[in-house]
Write a structure and sequence with these properties.
Elements: H1 2-16, E1 30-31, E2 48-52, H2 61-66, E3 69-78, E4 82-83, H3 87-97, E5 100-106, H4 113-123, E6 134-137, H5 152-170, E7 175-178, H6 180-185, E8 196-199, H7 205-208, E9 216-225, E10 228-237, H8 241-251
Parallel strand pairs: 2-3, 3-5, 5-6, 6-7, 7-8, 8-9
Antiparallel strand pairs: 1-9, 2-10, 3-4, 9-10
Helix pairs in contact: 4-5
């Protein structure tokens, strides 16, 4: 009798609980401030993704996947001791939604590359099928703790030391993310054998990085996704869907 009473009460409570509000926004990858590029438009690339960090406090990963987000790069670490507070949540959420995920490290010029590499390795899981790690290289003139701005040769030397350690651990060469100004200042065209993820929101990669081959293009920081508040960085993969599948076969972590 007690069991039947409890079941009946549970059914009643469930029936009285308010249903979640249905989603009414557009089911698309949008852009609040779209740019008309001089060359090929990024929306024409068949494989697109996003990146996320602590600024994205809530992401509806299932809906992101439903509208065509196929990959995501997530900020894991900065310098030698700064863990992105949203990394674990984002990593789990993207994984549950079936979105290909990878982790990135924001480089800090006042900590040795060895310390930074070891910190990243302790933080970013070596998960089978995940995307290659990423080294984010850009100037940060607003840093309250580090105003160091090394010359180009020193920058590339420090980068190489980080890259070598991380490559050895994950079994994949990292991708290098950068901006036009940093790319020119550090003469990153001298780095050979690495894939590039390029940020350029006003020009195409061929205009902003003449002669540089690229794998990913971060083309907007004003992207929008259903049921996800705030602006989102949206990226395009340089290739066809078949290229994407082949790239994943070669480049995911084993």
């Amino acid at each position: 009798m007690l069991t039947r009473f409890l079941i009946a009460a549970l059914v009643l409570l469930t029936a009285c609980a308010p249903a979640p509000a249905p989603f009414t926004g557009p089911m698309i990858i949008g852009d609040a401030d779209p740019v008309r590029f001089a060359g090929r438009q990024p929306s024409t690339f068949p494989v697109r993704g996003m990146d996320a960090a602590r600024f994205q406090t809530r992401v509806d990963w299932e809906r992101a996947k439903a509208v065509g987000i196929e990959f995501v790069f997530l900020k894991a670490t900065e310098g030698g001791d700064l863990l992105d507070p949203m990394f674990q949540d984002h990593w789990r959420g993207a994984g549950r939604a079936g979105i290909k995920r990878g982790a990135y490290h924001f480089y800090y010029f006042c900590t040795s590359p060895e310390v930074q590499a070891r910190f990243f390795i302790r933080t970013a899981p070596k998960t089978r099928g995940s995307l290659p790690p990423v080294l984010d290289m850009e100037w940060n003139p607003f840093s309250p703790t580090c105003q160091r701005r090394p010359d180009a040769a020193t920058v590339r030397n420090e980068m190489q030391r980080w890259l070598d350690i991380v490559t050895a651990y994950y079994g994949q060469r990292p991708i290098i993310y950068t901006t036009p100004g940093f790319y020119d200042d550090a003469e990153l065209n001298r780095l050979k054998g690495y894939e590039f993820w390029l940020r350029t929101t006003a020009k195409t990669p061929s205009e902003a990085f003449p002669g540089q081959r690229w794998r990913f293009w971060q083309y907007t920081s004003t992207g929008t996704l259903p049921n996800t508040p705030g602006a989102i960085d949206i990226n395009a993969f340089n290739g066809s869907r078949s290229d994407w599948d082949s790239w994943l076969d070669r480049r995911t972590v084993r």
